[in-house]
């Protein structure tokens, strides 16, 4: 067990500087992680990070991080097309790895990543970390307790105008399904079980955009509707995922699951939940459950992974789930291109809900006090 986890971060862009690094600073304050070694191909990015955060070293070559035997955990936060190679090399070198989504752009490489996790000395945690949110955990418990009965339909959505940085978001291997819809597919399969088949329609709404101050041609579709057949031994559940780089605002729930005895919905976004609403036929009324996730950051996987490395525990979200989600997304794109429903061959077992104490530290303390006071 490593008391203080030594971290190497590859990719020092927006998400690293604004989301993961502040969380890592908290972990450093708790004595759970040391100041990271940071890496980016761009010297200006590395300089920005070093001017803002504590670091223990820097490099412009990711191989330096991969070859460093003092590093316990490698965090891959690069643009999406680089994820697979960097994660594979880091795992093969014996490091634990947290990789942003998607784990790879190819199923062949994703299968190798799953195998390295299964057979190697190190663990792989793949974003998104939506299964760790306290509101997700509460929702899955309600469903397993039978409070909405047998689920039959579900829907999820996540969209916004799209990034005005990172031209790769609009190139091959980019697009809103890999960037945004991936959260919804992960949430729905976590709640309802593996996907058996998928069909989709996609379109391009804006073929030119200004990104990094430059007008570029968009090379991926930016608007997606997916229809998934999900389910386990309880039977099929038909679910939709709506995602786009072009949605402006919404107020409706992020995720809704309709059962024969009730409905449960997650407010906010599944990466930033804002409470639950539950209809139970037996009560004949809506109940609102205050968010348990108000202080839950979507980067919580890093806190979780650091705890796993320190304690030798296996991460809660398994790479088999991320592989399955990748197969669904690739199949959805194939369905849209060919106009034919695609069968999904991979499967996984959604993890049982966590004990409440496993949710992690500070972000629940306020909530517990609040609930005690009610
Ligand atoms: N931006 C967000 O809000 C957000 C949210 C959740 C997840 N993500 C995911 O996080 C990842 C990064 O997103 P971002 O918005 O920070 O992108 P970004 O373009 O701002 O940053 C990516 C960085 O990776 C660096 N990089 C690329 N290839 C590299 C390599 N081989 N070695 C070292 N550095 C390399 C780039 O120079 C760049 O600085 C993406 O996978 C994205 O899907 C982003």
UniProtKB/TrEMBL annotation:
Protein name: Gfo/Idh/MocA family oxidoreductase
Location of the Gfo/Idh/MocA-like oxidoreductase N-terminal domain: 6-116
Entry annotated with the keyword Zinc-finger: no
PANTHER family reported for this sequence: BCDNA.GH03377 (PTHR43818:SF11)
Keyword Ribosomal protein belongs to the record: no
Domain GFO/IDH/MocA-like oxidoreductase stretches: 136-264
Keywords noted in UniProt: Oxidoreductase
Domain of life: Bacteria
Species this protein is from: Microlunatus aurantiacus
